[in-house]
Automatic annotation (TrEMBL):
GO terms for molecular function: hydrolase activity. It is an enzyme of class 3 (hydrolase). Keywords: Calcium, Glycosidase, Hydrolase. This is Beta-galactosidase. Residues 297-518 form the Glycoside hydrolase family 2 catalytic domain. Its cofactor is Ca(2+). It comes from the Bacteria. Pfam families: Glyco_hydro_2, Glyco_hydro_2_C, Glyco_hydro_2_N. It comes from Sphingobacterium oryzagri. Residues 207-295 form the Glycoside hydrolase family 2 immunoglobulin-like beta-sandwich domain.
Amino acid sequence: MNSIRTCLLMLGLLWNALHGQTQTVKEKYYLSGTDNEHTVDWDFWVTGGRKAGRWEKIAVPSHWEQQGFGAYNYGRDYVTYGKNFRFHDEKGLYKHRFQVPKAWKGKKITIVFEGSMTDTEVKINNQTVGAVHQGAFYRFQYDISEHLLFDRENLLEVTVSKMSANPSVNNAERLADYWILSGIYRPVYLEATPATHISWTAIDAKADGTFASNVYLAGIVEEAMLQVDIKDNSGKIVATTSVPVQANDSLKNVALKMDNPQCWTAETPHLYHAVFSLTRKRRTVYQTKERFGFRTVEVRKGDGIYVNGAKIKMKGVNRHVWWPETGRSVNSKLDLQDVKLIKEMNMNAVRCSHYPPDKSFLEICDSLGLYVLDELAGWQKAYATPVGKKLVKEMVIRDVNHPSIILWSNGNEGGHNKELIAEYSRYDLSARTVIHAHHRPGNAINGIDCNHYEDYYSTKKILEGPLIYMPTEFLHAQDDGGAAAGLSDIWELHWNAKLGAGGFIWDFADEGIVRTDFNGVIDVNKVNAPDGILGPHREKEGSFYAIREIFSPVHIAMKKLPEEFDGKIAVENRYHHSDLKNCRFYYKLVNYKRPYDQQTGLDSAFTADVKSPNLAPTAKGFLDLQLPATWKSYDALLLTAVDQHGLEIYTWSWRIKNNAAILQAILPVKTASKVLFDEDTANYNLSANGIKASFAKQTGLLADLSNDYSMKLAFNNGPVLVNGQSQLLSAKPFSDGDKRGVTFVYAGNLHEIRWTMHPDGWLQLDYSYAHPDTVAFAGVSFDFPENYAITAKWLGNGPYRVWKNRLQGVTLNTWENMYNDSKAGIGPWTFPEFKGYFADVSWMQFNTTQGKFLVATAQDDLYIRLFDFYGISGPKGYPALPTGNISFLDAIPPIGTKLAMGINSKAAVNGPAGELNLPQQAVNRTLFFYFGLPKEEQENTQFIMPKENILTD
């Protein structure tokens, strides 16, 4: 591969020479591959762990652990093993042979490493080319012009140490709460420039069209001109200027003013190119270009963060550079995927935790629009000043011209070396504000407090001032907790507070590594790394969609259609720079599939566009749907908002028909029979239309079930009250026309259970209860073996499960989930989870190994709990579950976060939605059960279970 590239490069140089052309741009030649999917094999030797002590081949770029070498370490291993613990201090020795085009002789040639973990020593032809580089996340380079051979192969030797010889580098990067990997994990390449060239530029382009740039020059031996042309996306020159350059100049500042530029924001990511040309006697001797955006970022102390004169609030997330198979060695496709996912959640910001990302990620943030916090590493301890100054310079010089970067972060949670603060503006002409991402008092700087993991009530206090509050970490997405649970409450605080600047959820994706020493198992280091809103391969968890609704820039608060709904919906524009007239809206009137339909989803729909209102940023108004006269004949109303780029913002859904109306459409069964009643010493027995149910005389609970075309059903032992006490007082059979039943009366929290068998086989359950105290959950449960479940199909909110403080992100539809035992953060990352709390259910059909059965409710706002699950792992699953296996609930619990397992163990700390459920007046609910298929479906069923078990002893 290298030889082919060398030949192509040399042919290009020969063509230029033959046609009298001189190279005036920087030329690049890759010695490694370009990313984790396109690699080049180098020779490799590792000093410890797997495959130690012998020369092998290794793909570059990569981490050597992912290539089967060395040993794995998680950064918190030092906590596990104590202060005397040392990581596997492996060294990797790389060798690679390459040729340099003869035409490069006389040019400045540098070797560039985009990233290497961590101490890196470089030799060319047995000669050390410079000081050992320390720091794992930064681009570094060496001038190797004097070390190269142009008439034969060159030998590159690189020694990479997993641990640094500098203790402060280890403290900042290696002793951290993430996977500690090794090796040359980003590309390595050669760059050739003419002796006279532009080294780098720093641009400051303001929203008013003011453009300035510091242009760093090299090899200026005689007078020249420096010209800057500003080009728009079509390549048209829209502004230009030039300044003279004198011999020995190393820095020139150029400035111009452009009229009416299209400004860059996260909502409108307009970009330009600045083309820098060095000319001498009207001949271009060197040219380079930089992409940039016109935008003005201001931190107004005691007020807020402004972009182009508009106050912005960060709807942000923390992101590690990560892919399970290749660790921190990634590619631009993965970077693009992540930016799209962040924007799909209606977020506008990302924090690069806890180190600078790949260059391509920042380029995509520029082009698609995200506000970026670019962060110097320093997990909870800082770099020492000498090495820190070098690394700040490397980070800023690489990233300075990205308009998406609006703030520099000088380390994380105490990893702040305050002696480095002034270093950023030495290289950043725009002098972006420096912040500290912290969780310790005294680290707020430049008017911004970024304190981590404050709860709802402490956030309210902080927002009283005097500092702008922008938590660079809040909530915590381990397993199924945090992230969106409590987010609505906290986000409303920030949105409505003068000093609220939003914040950054921890974090984007589970940091699970494919272990090459354990047959490819994905390892999240137990509770340390499964912190994502998404799974390791970007599997979408329920919080993903809840965040999408909560952060929607089209804010609609209406949860239910009012009694006298006139088609007008209150809406708030939560964009910072965009009018809602630029969005598109349409609605659907829909009917939903019924339980025994073969498909799920919508049965029919009436669709119409909605006129977009003229609503400026932060303004409130109305959407007028102008519904047809027949709108009340449909089951539900759906409203969709689409942004100015043609991407869906969100779809909201509201019931038109209540559960009583839905029930009437599914209750009738064509066949019927006389209801039979009898009793024995233990049970009351009711049967009709081939279905028989028995109820225990001592408890009133369902004791036995069967029908005439399948085995007995194991659904029983209910309704058991999930909270409170009860004592049976009396039981009384009754007749009601052609129906028969039994009424059980209780003392305690449970008041009454009433069982009624209908002639068509529907079994009706009426029950009432009350709780005098707050409870985590309220309702009743039944037993049913989890391992019998195949699918659950329902009309209600879905397809994801919910918590009391995370009811967002689900929509009304007919859904069907297949059984899985997936656990968010642990695996196998199959979403949506089959088990959990499901909201606003009209009916649910269970497909089991014993056949199908159906349950429906006559009242609204029913939750159904399916089987055993938990939200957060720890000493035991959290929060606790109701008794039984399948529950029919009128109230469900909230969930806390990983950090709410200690002092903040109650979900209530993150806002009112996390409070327990208040005492209720008596709850009266009716459930209808059908334990079998309707006769017409039985006739179409290819396989019918035998009435008796044909197996004998």
